[in-house]
C-alpha cells in the first residue's frame, strides 16, 4: 500500500503542535511528509482561534490551501482541525468553506485518526500516538492536560478547549516522556498545558505537579525540563520549595518561570477576573524568594476596557521594576462571547498600539542590559538547527531561552551539532539574542 503524503500546517501554540504530531504518529508507517499542497494526498491545517488575528490567519491559510488544492491533480483531501473548528463549529464553517473535506474539533481528539482514515479510504490507521516529532532533535513539547477552569473575562480558551482541566495520567506521561528522550533523542522537554499548575486535580492528586516532576526528572538522558503556562495562583510556597530542591548544577529542572500575569493594576486585574488583583508582585516576590536568579517570562494585555493613562503608567512602572527576562505584550481584542467584549470604556486601537510599543521599547532596553552582562561568560547552549545565514553557524538556546517564544543564541564551532548541548563563550549581545563560540 502506498504511503499517505501529508502536508501539515500547525498554527498557534505548542499545544496545537502536539495534537498535529500525535495525528501524524497515528498514520504510522503509512506516512510520508510532503513539502507542498500540490504534492500531497492529505493537507492538514491545525488552526488557532484564540483571538481575532489568529482567526484571520487561520482563514487566510485555509483559503490559500484551497486555491493550491484546486490546481492539483489529483486534488488532495483538505482537513482543517483545531481551535477555529471548536470555536465556531463545523456547520457554520462548512457553509462558508465547502471545499474543506474534513473538520476536526479539539473536543474529539481521540477520533481524529479514524476520521482521517475514513476520508482517505484507509481503515488501518493506528490509535492516536505515538507522536511524529516536528521540532527537530533538540526538544519536544509534552502536553500534560487539556482545558482551563479559570474564568478570565477576556479569554476564549475555556469555551474552545474545555471549561475544566482534564489531566493525562502520570503513567502515560512518564511513558511518553521516556520515549521522547530515549528513542526520540531529545535533550529538553517543555511541559505545556492551558494551566500546568492545576495538573492532576481532576485525577484526585494533591500537588499533582510535584508528582509529575518526581516522575519525569529521573529519566536518563533528560538534560533540561522547562515548565510553561504557570498560572500565578498555583505557584504556592510549597510547590516552589519543592521545585527549589530539584534544581541545581547537573539537574534538569530549569529555574524558568512563564507566568501570564496580564496586567499589574488592581482595577484592571479585578475587571479581568484575575488572581492577585491587589498586587501581582506577590507572586514575583514568592518565586524570587526561592529562586533568586530565576528567569521570568510574562504576557501582558494593554488597552483592556477601562484602562486609563494612569493604569498604563502603573503597568509600565511594574515592568521597569520587575525586569522580566522575557515579555510578550498584546493589545486587547474584543472577542465575541467573552464578558469583556460588552464592557464599557473600550480603548481606541491607536492607543492600544502606542501602549504596546512603549512597553516593548522599555523591555528591549531591559533585555539588552541583561544579555550584555553575559558577554565573556561560558554557558551551555542547546543546539537546534543550522542557520541559513552562513555555513557553520547554528541556532541554539541557553537555559533561559524557551523555544519559539524567546530570543536565541547563534553559536558556531567544530563540535556544534543539532540536538547537542555544548559549552560556548558568549561573545556578543543583541537586543534579544546572543552570539557564542564553542
Structural account:
This protein is α/β, with parallel strands linked by helices and 438 residues long. It folds into three domains: 117 residues, Rossmann fold; 234 residues, pyruvate-formate lyase- activating enzyme (Alpha-Beta Horseshoe), CATH 3.80.30; 60 residues, Beta Barrel (OB fold (Dihydrolipoamide Acetyltransferase, E2P)). It is built from 13 helices and 18 strands. The strands form five sheets. A five-stranded parallel β-sheet has the order 2-1-3-4-5, sandwiched between helices. Strands 14-15-16-18-17 form a five-stranded mixed barrel. Helix 12 runs parallel beside helix 13. It is globular. It starts with a strand and ends with a strand. The mean pLDDT is 92.
Amino acid at each position: 500500500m502506498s504511503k499517505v503524503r501529508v502536508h501539515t500546517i500547525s498554527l498557534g501554540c505548542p499545544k496545537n503542535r502536539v495534537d498535529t504530531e500525535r495525528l501524524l504518529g497515528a498514520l504510522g508507517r503509512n506516512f510520508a511528509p510532503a513539502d507542498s499542497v500540490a504534492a500531497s494526498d492529505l493537507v492538514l491545517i491545525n488552526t488557532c482561534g484564540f483571538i481575532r488575528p489568529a482567526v484571520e490567519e487561520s482563514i487566510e491559510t485555509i483559503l490559500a490551501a484551497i486555491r493550491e488544492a484546486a490546481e492539483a491533480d489529483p486534488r488532495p483531501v483538505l482537513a482543517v482541525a483545531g481551535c477555529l473548528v471548536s470555536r465556531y463549529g463545523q456547520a457554520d464553517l462548512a457553509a462558508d468553506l465547502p471545499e474543506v473535506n474534513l473538520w476536526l474539533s479539539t473536543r474529539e481528539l481521540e477520533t481524529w485518526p479514524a476520521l482521517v482514515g475514513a476520508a482517505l479510504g484507509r481503515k488501518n490507521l493506528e490509535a492516536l500516538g505515538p507522536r511524529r516529532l516536528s521540532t527537530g532533535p533538540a526538544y519536544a513539547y509534552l502536553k500534560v492536560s487539556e482545558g482551563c477552569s479559570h474564568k478570565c473575562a477576556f479569554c476564549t480558551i475555556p469555551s474552545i478547549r474545555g471549561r475544566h482541566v482534564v489531566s493525562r495520567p502520570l503513567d502515560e506521561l512518564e511513558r511518553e516522556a521516556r520515549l521522547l528522550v530515549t528513542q526520540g533523542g531529545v535533550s529538553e522537554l517543555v511541559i505545556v498545558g492551558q494551566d500546568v499548575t492545576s495538573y492532576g486535580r481532576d485525577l484526585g492528586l494533591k500537588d499533582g505537579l510535584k508528582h509529575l516532576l518526581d516522575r519525569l526528572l529521573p529519566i536518563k538522558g533528560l538534560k533540561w525540563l522547562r515548565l510553561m503556562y504557570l498560572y500565578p495562583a498555583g505557584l504556592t510556597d510549597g510547590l516552589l520549595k519543592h521545585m527549589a530542591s530539584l534544581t541545581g548544577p547537573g539537574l534538569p529542572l530549569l529555574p524558568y518561570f512563564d507566568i501570564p500575569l496580564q496586567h499589574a493594576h488592581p482595577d484592571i486585574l479585578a475587571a479581568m477576573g484575575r488572581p492577585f488583583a491587589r498586587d501581582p508582585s506577590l507572586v514575583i516576590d514568592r518565586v524570587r524568594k526561592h529562586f533568586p536568579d530565576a528567569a521570568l517570562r510574562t504576557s501582558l494585555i494593554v488597552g483592556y476596557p477601562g484602562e486609563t493613562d494612569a493604569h498604563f503608567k502603573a503597568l509600565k512602572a511594574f515592568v521597569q521594576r520587575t525586569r522580566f527576562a522575557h515579555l510578550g505584550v498584546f493589545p486587547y481584542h474584543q472577542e465575541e462571547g467573552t464578558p469583556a467584549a460588552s464592557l464599557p470604556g473600550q480603548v481606541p486601537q491607536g492607543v492600544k498600539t502606542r501602549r504596546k510599543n512603549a512597553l516593548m521599547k522599555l523591555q528591549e532596553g531591559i533585555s539588552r542590559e541583561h544579555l550584555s552582562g553575559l558577554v565573556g561568560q561560558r554557558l551551555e547552549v542547546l543546539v537546534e538547527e543550522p542557520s541559513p545565514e552562513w555555513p557553520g553557524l547554528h541556532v541554539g538556546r541557553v537555559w533561559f531561552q524557551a523555544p519559539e517564544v524567546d530570543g536565541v543564541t547563534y553559536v558556531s564551532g567544530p563540535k556544534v551539532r543539532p540536538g547537542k548541548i555544548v559549552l560556548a563563550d558568549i561573545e556578543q549581545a543583541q537586543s534579544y539574542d546572543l552570539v557564542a563560540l564553542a
